[in-house]
Write a structure and sequence with these properties.
One of its GO terms (biological process) is ribose phosphate metabolic process. By secondary structure, this protein is an alpha+beta fold. It is built from 3 helices and 10 strands. Strands 4, 5, 6, 7, 8, 9 and 10 form a 7-stranded mixed β-sheet that branches.
Length: 183
């Protein structure tokens, strides 16, 4: 990438510290030498898991999201704990939200969710060779397991019904794989 576009951080001020995020204001030097302010949300990162227990079916959860005021269809996901490897977090979150464990876990992408103001990075995994077990979500987490077929996923994408970005990215990847039409 072009380093001539880089902004240099001159000063950082912590405005808020919560259990999941921190908010800082930054003073930066722009590429043309002027200074500007930035508001930055710091997040430890997250994982998301596209789990396929059988060909042509993936595991999703329905979960109410207070920030959006909606119940969303999402693939299982969760926040990284300090020092936790993304693959370990993916296995933990898959088991917590769905009860399934995976024999095979492959990282397929890492992406920033909203790079204009946040540093959150999601590590997307594809899980196969699944074994069913009992879900054990966090005490404040209420989710309903919802298997989704390839045809349903395709319809949700085509109709613009997916409102969760990580799930949209995962579905587009899954539907675009060679042989996806046969799954």
């Amino acid at each position: 990438m072009d380093n001539s576009l880089q902004e240099r951080v001159l000063e950082r001020t912590r405005v808020f510290s919560g259990r999941m995020i921190q908010l800082e204001t930054w003073r930066v030097r722009l590429p043309d030498g002027r200074e500007a302010g930035r508001e930055v949300v710091l997040h430890p990162g997250a994982v998301a898991i596209l789990a396929e227990p059988e060909p042509g079916v993936v595991l999703c959860v329905e979960q109410y999201r207070t920030a959006t005021g909606e119940t969303l269809l999402e693939i299982p996901a969760g926040k990284l704990e300090p020092g936790e490897a993304p693959a370990a977090c993916a296995m933990r979150e898959l088991a917590e939200e769905t009860g399934y464990t995976a024999e095979t876990l492959t990282q397929i992408a890492s992406f920033f969710t909203s790079p204009g103001f946040a540093d959150e990075q999601v590590h997307l995994f594809y899980a196969t060779e699944l074994t069913r077990g009992d879900a054990h979500p966090d005490a404040d987490e209420f989710v309903r397991l919802r298997p989704v077929t390839k045809d349903e996923a395709s319809a949700w994408v085509a109709e613009g019904r997916l409102r969760d970005a990580k799930t949209l990215v995962a579905f587009l990847w899954w539907l675009g794989q060679p042989g996806a039409a046969k799954r």
